[in-house]
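Structure ticket #2291
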Amino acid sequence: MPRLKEIPTRKEEEIAELLCELTRLCNIKEEHFASSFNLSPGEFRLLKYFASKETYTIKELCVLLNLTPGRITHLVSSLEKKNLIKRNVTPEDRRNILISLSSQTQNFINNIYADHINFHNNVLIAVSDKKKGEILSSLKMMVDSLQNWINTK
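Resolution: structure written out below.
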């Protein structure tokens, strides 16, 4: 006989509700940041990855952003029209396209990244270092739990 799912306790319900609210608020924050740089939320999320790595393939961006190749291509085309990124054909395999920042975009990305970090610093300004450590630990635990769940699907 299959095991019945346990009914969630009040704590699990509250955690689920808080995660949904946090997701909603983060989406609002992302929309605000994107519009302040004259970007769509998707363009903003894509560009943020270039703060840590210089080039990506379409496939890598699909995995990172959990979007279809067609949607990534649309975002790349839009950012290319804004002269923020460029496509480069790899000499080894002309079918493989690397996406990178255009030459004048690195300062723009640095500004986006700095503003994003400053925002979070301001949000957490009244939180003690000890509490920040607890929040960080809890968030890492949640990310790991969700990642484990995704990996089993």
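Closing remark: The first helix runs from residue 10 to 36.
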